[in-house]
């Protein structure tokens, strides 16, 4: 993949103040009053070194599932996902369809994904099952203000991709990550991920290291504010997802994709909680433009 140099530093410089530095949230008129009793705040702490907080929105299904960015929130129930991403640039077409299941055990969330990939470029075609992915994430530290309008969670995660067919990839991929879920006010959220990808094994890309980063900005609108039929919550989402190669021939080259779309969480059907996400994908730099001029992302989730 081709990338443009120097952009990740600029992007992270622009995003870090809002992604990773807690800011003061202004109270809204309709916001209920919360007690600022220090004793109540202390009693809400739990986990290693009392770094976690029962009041955090992280465990209350507040953060939406992004369309391009890796999921970061706690799955309080089991979740079955079907994701579809199609991009095209001139004669090149790429399609990835993924089935994934997630389940939490306490504060630990585990996930298993199986993708099917199809790539074509000027008549050349490759297709098959991609790398089976095993993932885990865990919150490490949480801060919740006394009025709960500022709520941030830092956590760690990892993902292991094991190749199935050499037609798609023959390298094992290991990606440790850190993430932050930030809630500002009653509706706005920012989910951020930083990862370090390493390709292992005997493939031609063996030893390639890549820095991965991204943010998802969302504004959750409950049914009381937007009464769409059958929809409990409607969430517009804007995402930025990029990667920078750190070694080999294209060291320092960057690719940045953007996505604008929404997620609609529907009313439960029995024990199932359906959710639909839809987004338009577009390149943000010359590196991404070589791989994708446009695309579409679809996500269908069933919580159980």
Strand content: over 45%
Count structural domains: 1
| Second-tier CATH architecture | Beta Barrel
Which structural class do you get from the secondary structure elements?
Answer: mainly beta
Which stretches of 5+ consecutive residues score pLDDT under 50?
1-36
Using the coordinates shown, work out and report the CATH topology. Answer: Porin
Question: Number of helical segments?
Answer: 3
Tell me roughly what share of residues is in helical segments: under 10%
Highlighted features:
304 residues, Porin, 12-stranded antiparallel β-barrel, 3 helices, 17 strands, disordered N terminus
Can you describe this structure?
- With 304 residues, this protein is mainly β.
- Helices cover 8% and strands 55% of the residues.
- The protein has one domain: monomeric porin ompg (Porin, Beta Barrel), CATH 2.40.160.40.
- It starts with a strand and ends with a strand.
């Amino acid at each position: 993949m081709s990338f443009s140099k120097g952009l990740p530093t600029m992007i992270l410089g622009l995003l870090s103040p809002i992604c990773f530095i807690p800011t003061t949230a202004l109270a809204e008129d309709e916001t209920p009053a919360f007690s600022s009793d220090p004793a109540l705040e202390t009693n809400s702490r739990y986990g290693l070194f009392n770094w976690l907080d029962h009041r955090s929105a992280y465990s209350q299904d507040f953060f939406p599932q992004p369309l391009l960015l890796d999921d970061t929130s706690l799955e309080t129930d089991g979740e079955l996902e079907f994701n579809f991403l199609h991009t095209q640039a001139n004669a090149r077409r790429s399609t990835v369809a993924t089935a994934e299941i997630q389940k939490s055990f306490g504060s630990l969330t585990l996930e298993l994904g199986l993708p099917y990939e199809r790539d074509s470029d000027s008549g050349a075609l490759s297709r098959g099952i991609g790398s089976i992915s095993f993932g885990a994430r865990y919150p490490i530290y949480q801060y919740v203000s006394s009025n709960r309008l500022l709520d941030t969670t830092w956590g760690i995660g990892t993902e292991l991709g094991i190749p199935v067919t050499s037609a798609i990839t023959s390298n094992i991929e290991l990606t440790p990550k850190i993430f932050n879920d930030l809630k500002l006010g009653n509706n706005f959220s920012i989910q951020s991920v930083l990862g370090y990808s390493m390709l292992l094994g005997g493939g031609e890309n063996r030893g390639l290291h890549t820095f991965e980063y991204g943010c998802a900005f969302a504004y959750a609108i409950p049914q009381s504010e937007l009464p769409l039929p059958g929809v409990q919550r409607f969430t517009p989402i804007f995402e930025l997802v990029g990667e920078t190669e750190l070694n080999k021939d294209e060291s320092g080259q960057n690719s940045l994709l953007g996505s604008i779309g929404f997620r609609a969480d529907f009313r439960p059907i029995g024990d199932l909680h359906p959710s639909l996400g839809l987004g338009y994908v577009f390149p943000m730099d010359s590196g991404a433009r070589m791989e994708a001029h446009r695309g579409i992302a679809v996500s269908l989730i069933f919580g159980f």
